[in-house]
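Running this now, will post back.
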Amino acid sequence: MALALSGQDTAMDDTVEPQNARDVLPITCCRRLLGDEAIDLTDAEIEEIRRHAHVLAHTLLEVFLH
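Update: finished.
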């Protein structure tokens, strides 16, 4: 699984992340979950992946519940 970050604006950039979301899953835990794929990623890239995953999860929950 290769991860690529384009750095371009996406639809997920328009979604607001809850303020406390960063406290829920620290960067070190995200790195563990990503495994070897996270070795060459910066903390900023890990944070972007975490934010996108968090927003996607909440979006899917909203769709499922409606």
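The mean pLDDT is 79. More later if anyone needs it.
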